[in-house]
């Protein structure tokens, strides 16, 4: 048990210490198989994906619509969405190893390798809901171009639900980018709320809900 805890903390520490796409690729290739059990451990109690799915389900009027789970990882958000009645969910992630685990959930329609630091290889205005949990964190993905790309691929009046780790919401430029998208009348900010991220570790994330109202 002690060895398991040390390993788990080492992987989490590496996640927080990631500086590049290459760091993330190496880390998640090693972590994919134990990611779910490590983060379900009481010392972590990683609730962000479940709260993100719950938030999306609360705010959508179209649960049967098309959903993109960006940075889907092993599929925790997709599974929670499916339990809530979602039927058509696409996933996108940088890590082939994480996507392999996501594929085994059986809840995703398409799963693609994709880099959220670049334009998303999806057409404009196709998704009713875009979710992104746990991926706006240290050394992973920044607000630009990802948030604007989420708006681009979302249908008018569709919603975007993203978690941003509390300590980078302002310092990482996420708040400023949301305000810019709102000033450009591309989105309406429906809700911004601090919620639990890892209950076991006591950290929190900003959960932002945007409604697309204009075209990118
Ligand atoms: C903490 S995990 C979150 C996964 C899942 N959404 C969850 O909540 O369990 C972060 C995910 O971001 C992905 N990621 C990191 N950098 C990325 C990038 N540039 N583009 C797409 N995904 C990325 C990782 O591969 C990993 O699956």
From TrEMBL:
Q: What is this protein called?
A: S-adenosyl-L-methionine-dependent methyltransferase
Mind telling me which residue stretches traverse the membrane in this protein?
A: none
Q: Which InterPro entries match?
A: Methyltransf_25, SAM-dependent_MTases_sf
| Organism annotation | Aspergillus ibericus CBS 121593
GO terms classed as biological process = methylation
Note one Pfam family from the annotation: Methyltransf_25
Q: Which residues form a coiled coil?
A: none
The Methyltransferase domain covers which part of the protein? 67-158
Q: Keywords on this record? A: Methyltransferase, Transferase
Q: Name one GO molecular function term.
A: polyprenyldihydroxybenzoate methyltransferase activity
């Amino acid at each position: 048990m002690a060895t398991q805890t040390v390993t788990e903390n080492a992987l989490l520490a590496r996640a927080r210490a990631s500086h590049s796409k290459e760091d993330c690729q190496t880390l998640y290739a090693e972590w994919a198989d134990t990611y779910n059990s490590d983060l379900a451990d009481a010392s972590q109690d990683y609730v962000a994906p479940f709260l993100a799915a719950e938030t999306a389900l609360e705010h959508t009027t179209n649960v049967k619509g098309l959903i993109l789970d960006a940075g889907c990882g092993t599929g925790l958000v997709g599974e929670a969405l499916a339990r809530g009645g979602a039927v058509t969910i696409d996933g996108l992630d940088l890590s082939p190893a994480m996507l392999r685990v996501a594929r085994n959930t059986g809840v995703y329609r398409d799963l693609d390798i994709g880099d959220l630091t670049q334009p998303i290889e999806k057409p404009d205005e196709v998704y009713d809901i875009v979710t992104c949990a746990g991926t706006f964190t240290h050394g992973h993905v920044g607000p630009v171009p990802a948030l604007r790309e989420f708006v681009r691929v979302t249908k008018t009046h569709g919603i975007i639900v993203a978690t941003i780790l509390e300590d980078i919401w302002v310092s990482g430029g996420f708040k400023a980018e949301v305000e810019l998208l709102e000033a450009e009348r591309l989105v309406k900010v429906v809700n911004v709320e601090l919620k639990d991220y890892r209950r076991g570790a006591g950290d929190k994330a900003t959960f932002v809900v945007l409604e697309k109202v204009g075209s990118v």
